Sequence to fold (152 residues):
Amino acid sequence: MGTEDWDRRLREQGYRITPQRQLVLEAVERLRHGTPEAILVEVQRTASGVNLSTIYRTLEVLEEVGLVTHAHIGHGAPTYHAVEEEIHIHLVCDRCRAVESVSADVAASFVKRLKSDFGFDTDISHISMHGACRDCSTRERNWQEVDEGAQR
Fold:
């Protein structure tokens, strides 16, 4: 999404695109998934005078107008990302901390079952699944095979 789109979305809600808002939006897009602290570091590369409270206030406004959203990927600050056309689920590797976004379609049957069995409407946009990514799982399997070979 470009500056003109950001400006239009903000103006529709009674806001305007300020330099800080633009810097935060650009940082969120570059990082793809960033905590407020990571966004601050990214913004400070250009504007060293920006502080963490400015980042939080800006993220609050940007979330209110629908330009960013957040998910709780770990046990700390929420992670922000740009609002995309497609809702997605976050796959979080607990070993290397990689975060991968996958289409919410992969959970369609699960969501449908939650609705039919429990009457529960699921907000997929805040789902994070924790486990081990492909690389970490492969590395672990390879080490297990080496260990088993050494024990023989």
